[in-house]
Write a structure and sequence with these properties.
By secondary structure, this protein is α/β, with parallel strands linked by helices. The protein folds into 2 domains: 1-101, Rossmann fold; 109-138 and 152-202, Rossmann fold (3-Layer(aba) Sandwich), CATH 3.40.50.170. Helix content is 35%, strand content 25%. It binds 5-O-phosphono-beta-D-ribofuranosylamine.
Amino acid sequence: MKRLGILLSGRGSNFVAIAEAIESHRLLGAEICIVLSNVVDAPGIVAARKMGLNTAVVESRGRTRDEHDMEVIARLHQHKADLVILAGYMRILSPRFITEFPERILNIHPSLLPDFPGMHAHRDALAAGVKESGCTVHFVNERVDDGTIILQRSVPVLPGDTEETLAARVLEQEHGAYPEAIARVLCEQYESRNGHYVKRND
Ligand code: GRF
């Protein structure tokens, strides 16, 4: 069984989708060992408590990034996390954090990376007038919204779309994409090759 450490800061709908995928045996070989929030009473951490999962709040206020990250890393190790799943975690990880879990930290971003990284993916996609957007699950490296892409799912951008309508259409895809990407990492049949995550030859 591989152990998932989930980090979140807000709503937590991707975390809930992952928990439900495990519960309903759509994501096999995984269990959630800890749900950790940097925000007190984030809806996601409240949901995790209701599910009876291990939870922790590690507040970032008043501490350096390194101090905060060291405590988060310690909690993840304490619960023996194999994979770190960023699910709406609104903090940039320190280099130390990233080297602690090489190719073991996943993030989901609401655009078809490398297009529209950053905080305003939907706004930027609409402003650019693209016909298609979507979501990307990728490994986290030292650059924001970069790192090997594990999988992407696309949706059409429709006439009259607002940030909210586009976000909702993409979010529906996120909830399927994240469990599938985790399964892909856990099955160990894929490897990173030249920046792509591809099936092994052997
Ligand atoms: C999602 O849109 C995800 O792509 C982005 O942050 C949002 C988190 O939503 N990284 P939720 O907290 O999982 O509902």
